[in-house]
Amino acid sequence: MDSTELRIAAVVPCHNEEAAVAKVVADLQAAVPGIVVYVYDNLSTDRTAERAREAGAIVRHEHTKGKGNVVRRAFADIDADIYLMIDGDDTYEASAAPLMIKTLLDGPYDHVLGVRRQDEGASAYRAGHESGNKILNGVVGKVFGENVEDMLSGFRVFSRRFVKSFPAVSREFEIETELTVHSLHLRVPRTAVPVGFRDRPAGSESKLRTYHDGFKILALIFGLARHERPVAFYGLAGTFAWLVSIVLTIPIVIEFYNTGEVPRFPTLFLGFTLLLLGSLAWTAGLILDGIRRSRHEAARLVYLRYAAVGGDDARDGDEPEGGIAR
Questions:
Q1: What is the distance between the alpha carbons of residues 302 and 192, in angstroms, rounded to a whole number?
Q2: Structure pTM?
Q3: Nearest 5°: CA angle at 191, between 114 and 295?
Q4: Core-most of 49, 265, 266, 304, by most CB within 10 Å?
Q5: Which spans are transmembrane here (predicted)?
Q6: What is the DSSP track for 111-148?
Q7: Among residues 224, 232, 249, 215, which one has the least CA distance to residue 284?
Q8: Is 300 helix (H, G, I), strand (E, B) or coil?
Q9: Domain 3-225: which CATH class?
Q10: Is the distance from CB of 59 to CB of 53 less than 8 angstroms?
């Protein structure tokens, strides 16, 4: 199916982007004829909403602070076949949108990630951001067993079934990490496309706080590892407790065997306590792994209720007969 026959919606989260948002809207409309651009104004104190409306966007307001809250609201409110998400700061080349949409349809894929390639002479990556991004990509790759090229990219294209199966729990800039992890654990068809990345226009300021947001993303990865890899997470803690228990108790057991006495009873008590805690950690990991499997099965069934992008049932926006895409 040709992309012109599909409903394509762009979600543009904005907070004080008066200097850039009109160009982002215009560039999207020029790149993808027929696209409906939704600018979500997130507590801006400047003329962001007015500029976006003048440029031809549908302006909506999210009064709870945070990009994650904006995406959660937009994904719930907007009904489309293809969703494009792009930041409102004009750092991404909107001209890459047609290729990303075509890639999604040709797959068909459910998630196309725009991997940033900084324009020659640009300094769009702030100090430490590029290296921090690589570190976070590596951590997620190790935890989930798949390579991630640009986990923090704000330029992505999604199918309807990806969006409608995405829980969107994050509140702020961790949303990109959550989107990436959702595609990994649900194992949806996904790919990546290089996109241009440039400096912000004059008068526009970054809302990122390098260390604050970096630590929040690391905390999210830590929490996701606990939820998505519970056997490894709790098993590692349990195994460590067992090893410490063995180190503490073996000398006491040997001495008891030789002398019939227990000279360090508190140490023996600590050793057996650690042995018990290690067993409880492994038990918790196994139980939570069963719950994880049930969650994934439920998410997969929600995902399968929608037709593949561009499929026979995709245009009307309704679920196919029987609720399962064929």
A1: 24
A2: 0.80
A3: 105
A4: 49
A5: 231-254, 266-288
A6: EEEEEEEEPTT---SPTTHHHHHHHHHHHHHHHHSS--
A7: 232
A8: helix
A9: alpha beta
A10: yes
Domain boundaries, the chain: 3-225, 230-304
Query: Please, what sign has the CA dihedral across residues 96, 99, 101, 104?
Result: negative
Residue with tokens 């947001």: 213
Measure CA of the first residue to CA of the last residue in the chain; give whole Å: 17
Structure tokens at 156: 């992505």
DSSP-based three-state secondary structure for 160: helix
The whole-angstrom separation of Cα 58 and Cα 60 is 7
pLDDT in tens, the chain (326 residues): 566 689 999 999 999 999 999 999 999 999 999 999 999 999 999 999 999 999 999 999 999 999 999 999 999 999 999 999 999 999 999 999 999 999 999 999 999 999 998 866 655 555 556 666 777 788 778 777 777 889 889 999 999 999 999 988 888 878 998 899 889 888 899 999 999 998 888 766 666 666 666 677 677 677 777 888 899 999 999 999 999 999 999 988 888 888 888 778 889 899 999 999 999 999 999 999 999 889 888 888 989 999 888 665 544 444 443 332 32
